[in-house]
Design a protein that fits this description.
Bound molecules: glutamine
Number of strands: 13
Shape: globular
Distance between the termini: 23 Å
Strand order of the largest sheet: 1-3-2-6-8-7-12-13-11-9-10
């Protein structure tokens, strides 16, 4: 697209003034889907008739002055989120045929505000991946260049926004899955503070890391969606009441020396990052470099803990309760084994095995307990930095979007791509990826800002300042 779509506030003004209708909006997005989805593979299901019917109802509500706060906001949802009476498959064959009997809290709150869900978006199986190539429905292609991946795991959600197939997507982020594809596709992606948005109805990957958040072209759209989906719902005991964050900005931010000096960081991204840093400095904000001694421990900590949690969470997919069931089992044990053998993908199996190993009696202390201890150290050091500065900035990813197939042969290479994003999940802090121009191949780059717990408003304001600088 040559031109950014309008922010929701302007769309809403047009809707209220009768210059635009929800039906018209849906038709426009459906036209984009029809033109590009066959190739890009961003949507797994498009709720065409339903979205048009709902749009008509909401048009009437607008005319009657009774419409909700997000009336006519056209949203796509990642295939990890449950939506009542609709399929949810987590990008997996193991949930083949599964329809949810309830909606995720985040989805329900959008519906209650009169948003319109246009479809369900492709993702890496159970959110496990960084390129969307681990989806059992095939990869999502990057709209900037279809020889390249969209990023993952919320690849469909990023590309749907990138290609104008919806106004906003709801993605999920366990180790970077909102921010990384956002960076690869040149859109905004916000991972909220852990405990801000209910995980009820989110198909779990690693429960102490998983977060739901919005992806869009406009910061104000992220704020509106966050305000709608956040807060207590009684179904997620890890939710915290959103505190009042009235603190005095220090006007000082930091980048981590080990990150900007990391050998994996593409020089064009480093240059773009420092150009952005200079622009920020010119607005009177002090930018300092800080040490972070645990960067080498970041990915091992993340992968030990998330695979442990995944091995436990994914035990429920046994062929009995929902989804796929093998047709040729002689007894119960064989039914479990064959069902899981047949329907889980390779990466999911790898992680279940790794997670089972780190939780096994002989290795629990050496791996799982140790990783929990290192998680604490990473948290403490990160919070110590944030006691002295307002935000920690970095490139979102060390490279621009890979070519399709470039990283699939070596899982470790794939995991390395998460190096800059997992810190926010290991610590539970909010983080945002902002587009940072394109490289010499016209592929988008991302600038990441991580803030204090529950300081999303500050984060979004700061991002606005960056965009203006
Ligand atoms: N790429 C990371 C992983 O594979 C992050 C995934 C995510 O955030 N869901 O675990």
């Amino acid at each position: 697209m040559n031109q950014l779509p309008l922010p929701y506030s302007e769309i809403r003004r047009q809707l209220n003034a009768g210059e635009q209708t929800c039906v018209g909006l849906i038709q426009n997005h459906l036209a984009q889907i029809d033109a590009h989805n066959n190739k890009l593979n961003a949507f797994l299901a498009v709720y065409r008739d339903e979205a048009l019917a709902r749009a008509e109802v909401i048009d009437q509500k607008i005319a009657a002055g009774q419409a909700g706060s997000l009336a006519g906001l056209v949203v796509g949802i990642k295939d990890l989120l449950c939506y009542e009476s609709h399929g949810s498959q987590a990008g997996s064959q193991i949930l083949n045929g599964f329809e949810s009997t309830f909606s995720a809290t985040a989805v329900q709150r959008l519906l209650d505000a009169d948003a319109i869900i246009i479809g369900r978006q492709n993702c890496d199986e159970f959110g496990m991946g960084s390129t969307n190539e681990n989806s059992s429905f095939g990869p999502v292609l990057n709209f900037a260049n279809t020889a390249h991946v969209a990023g993952g795991s919320s690849g469909g959600s990023a590309v749907a926004v990138q290609a104008g197939m919806c106004q906003v997507s709801l993605g999920t982020d366990t180790g970077g899955s909102i921010r990384m594809p956002a960076a690869f596709c040149g859109v905004l992606g916000l991972k909220p503070t852990y405990g801000r948005v209910s995980r009820w109805g989110l198909i779990a990957y690693a429960s102490s890391f998983d977060s739901i958040g919005p992806m869009a072209h406009h910061l104000e759209d992220l704020s509106l969606v966050l305000a709608c989906i956040e807060g207590e719902d009684g179904y997620d005991s890890t939710l915290t009441e959103v505190p009042n964050m009235a603190y005095q900005p220090k006007k000082r931010i930091a980048y981590i020396k080990e990150i900007v000096e990391h050998p994996s960081l593409q020089s064009e991204i480093r240059d773009a990052f420092f150009t952005q840093v200079e622009a920020i400095e010119s607005t009177g904000v002090e930018v300092v470099s800080v040490d972070f001694a645990y960067l080498d421990q970041m990915l091992p900590t993340y992968y030990v803990l998330t695979t442990a949690e995944a091995s436990s969470n994914l035990a429920r997919f046994d062929g009995i309760k929902f989804g796929h069931r093998t047709e040729n089992a002689r007894d119960l044990m064989e039914l479990y084994k064959k069902t899981r053998e047949e329907a889980f993908g390779e990466e999911v199996k790898r992680r279940i095995m790794l997670g089972t190993f780190v939780l096994s009696a002989d290795y629990y202390d050496a791996y799982y307990t140790k990783a929990q201890q290192v998680r604490r150290l990473i948290q403490e050091r990160t919070l110590a930095i944030l006691a002295d500065v307002d935000y920690i900035i970095s490139p979102t990813t060390s490279s621009t979007a890979y070519r399709l197939g470039e990283k699939t042969v070596d899982p470790l290479q794939m995991y390395l791509g998460d190096l800059f994003t997992v810190q926010a999940n290991v610590t539970g802090l909010p983080a945002l990826s902002i587009p940072m121009g394109v490289d010499s191949n016209q592929l988008p780059m991302g600038f990441q800002v991580m803030g204090r717990s529950f300081d999303e408003a500050g984060l979004l304001n700061f991002a606005k300042m960056i965009q203006a600088s």
